[in-house]
Fold this sequence. Notes:
Blueprint: E1 11-13, E2 21-22, E3 29-35, E4 49-56, E5 60-61, E6 68-74, E7 80-84, E8 87-91, E9 96-100, E10 105-108, E11 114-122, E12 126-142, E13 153-165, E14 169-171, E15 176-180, E16 184-201
Amino acid sequence: xxSEGAAGEPSxxxxxxxxxxxxxxxxxxxxxxxxxxxxxGGPTTEPAWRISIATIDRSAPFxxxxxxxxLLMTLSPAGLDLVIDGRRVRGEAFDVLPFAGESxxxxxxxxxxxxxxxxxxxxGAAVGTLVARHLDGELTLRSPGTPSxxxxxxxxxxxxxxxxxxxHGALALHDAVVIPSGGAVQLTGRAAVIALAxxxxxRAS
Length: 205
């Protein structure tokens, strides 16, 4: 599921349209929320960036992604415990944990089914930020760059509460609004939280 569209025109990617796919190592499942174009000079099958939501229902190792930088946001109220390269790290709800795709990462002491949102960026192709933004009112989101240089993206994923857009209507849980370079969209929320990712190139495209 890509994020193609007219330059500067936001689009909505619905959670109900996503397929569930196994992790690369087969230890869990995920759904792809949005992904960018292929990384310049890299394998055509690998996008410069990808956002996904993984289901974690047991203690298990994560897949390895060489050459990728990862940001993981815990979506479950119970939080998530990881061991990253031998160091135990605790992520409470909506915390963001960074690690390299080459790192040895394992979910531990999992006692129920939970979710996490992942932003993966190809090292040398793109850099990203990921934060939880509380929304109780109106918010205008803008993507950096200009429509003539479509290489930056802003992606907002509904992770809690009720969110609407004047141009796209009601957004269900885990629906995503994808804003290309130079675009903007207005959101209205009530006791809501969005996962806000901003992706920019590390070199001229």
